[in-house]
Specification:
The protein has helices spanning 15-27, 41-54, 71-79, 91-94, 96-105, 116-133, 146-156, 179-190, 192-205, 238-248, 267-283, 287-296, 305-309, 338-353, 365-368, 370-379, and strands at 5-10, 34-38, 63-65, 81-86, 108-110, 136-138, 165-174, 213-215, 222-223, 230-233, 255-264, 312-321, 324-332, 361-363, 383-386. It is of the alpha/beta class. The N and C termini lie far apart (45 Å).
């Protein structure tokens, strides 16, 4: 059915939401019908005024009120647009009703989640419905997990076909953290006991390739291949996303393995990082401690513009298979915010306007958008190169 909008951004007044709105204001094509959405009309109006000061044509940019706690408003929001991008997290707390509304309405849905339990919950509860309506539910459309998912795709496409492939990804970054990201991390740590049950429920439902092997082992601390650094396994959602892309795309070969790690030059830094994460994870199990930690960096807060300008990321991949070795790199600026806003906005525009393979249900960025999104991101300044 015809929709009033091509793209709607929900959570536009949050930290990453504002950056995404600014990116769309500057880069959305003239024919794009887009709108801002959130629960606070006054804040939306103020954000529109800021955008219109730079881009006068946005003085009448549509503003839509919707609330994560109001299912009727979410259904109306989902029914108004072809693509709905949301920055409202933690997604385990606030995300599922909107994903459900999009699945029912046949509306493409994108988010920035790095929360495995949320992704599995949406698959269990809404993948089948999205398949029926044609909706594409695409999670992890920011630094989690676009550079890793599309970086592996970019690498695999430069390897021989129909041979076993082994890919290792090494992440390096310098960046600050926002309150929303920190809140999502605390929420995930606090729910670790229920994560395995949700993952098991997904495994019981999700079909697996019968004649292909897909593996994403955690591995151990080791020397990084081709780099003067230690490879430290990362407990992030990225390997799961890469593995699901590999399961759905035969181009990844009959036997595919992906290992994911941080590249750290000095072992003392490794020890400090492990202890720090363990301390936060332990504190997240105690409600008063979790609330106290969450108050230190509240949702809506984030690194300053000058701090973001000094931030960067690099993900290097080493692939072997068929007697060949290929090394590639995906790199860019501030990973958690500036580049994440760019990735989310370009993903939304890609779903709205690019010629893409037919997919539906819960799909990854590599499966839903693949090379067209890579080319969009390259044009926007994110580097994909053979190293």
């Amino acid at each position: 059915m015809p929709r009033k909008y091509d793209v709607v951004l929900f959570g536009a007044t949050g930290f990453v939401g504002r950056l995404t709105a600014e990116y769309l204001a500057e880069n959305a094509p003239e024919h794009c019908r887009w709108a801002l959405a959130g629960r606070d009309t006054a804040k939306l109006t103020a954000l529109r005024a800021e955008l219109a000061a730079r881009f006068p044509e946005l003085a009448e940019l549509p503003l839509l009120r919707a609330d994560s706690g109001d299912p009727d408003s979410l259904r109306e929001l989902a029914g108004s647009t072809r693509v709905l991008a949301t920055t409202v997290g933690p997604y385990l707390q606030y995300g599922e009703p909107l994903a459900a509304a999009c699945a029912d309405a046949g509306t493409d849905y994108l988010d920035l989640t790095g929360e495995p339990q949320f992704v599995d919950t949406v698959y269990v509860n809404h993948h089948a419905r999205a398949r029926e309506t044609g909706a594409r539910l695409v999670h992890a459309c920011g630094f989690d997990s676009v550079p890793h998912d599309l970086g592996v795709l970019f690498t695999v496409l430069r390897m021989p076909q129909d041979v076993p492939l082994r890919v290792e990804g090494y992440v390096r970054a310098k960046a600050g953290m926002s309150g929303g990201t920190f809140a999502s991390a605390l929420e995930s740590f606090a729910r670790w006991q229920t994560m395995s049950a949700t993952a098991r429920a997904r495994r019981e439902l999700e079909p697996r390739p019968r004649d292909r092997r897909i593996s994403t082992p955690v591995g151990r601390i080791r020397r990084a291949k081709g780099m003067p650094a230690w490879a430290v396994p990362l407990p992030t959602i990225d390997p799961q996303i890469v593995g699901r892309s590999a399961a759905q795309l035969e181009r990844y070969g009959p036997d595919f393995e992906y290992r994911h790690a941080a590249a750290v030059r000095r072992l003392p830094v490794v020890a400090g990082g492990v202890l720090g994460v363990a301390g936060i994870a332990l504190a997240a199990q105690i409600p008063p401690a979790r609330r106290k930690l969450g108050a230190k960096l509240a949702p809506g807060d984030g690194p300053s513009e000058s701090r973001r300008a000094r931030s960067w990321f690099s993900v290097r991949f080493t692939a072997t298979g068929g007697g060949q070795t290929v090394r590639t790199e995906v790199s860019g600026g501030d990973p958690g915010y500036g580049e994440t806003a760019k990735m989310l906005a370009e993903s939304a525009l890609c779903l709205a306007f690019d010629e893409l393979p037919h997919t539906s249900g819960q799909v990854t960025t590599a499966v839903a958008m693949g090379e067209p999104l890579i080319e969009r991101l390259r044009a926007a300044g994110i580097v994909f190169r053979v190293a």
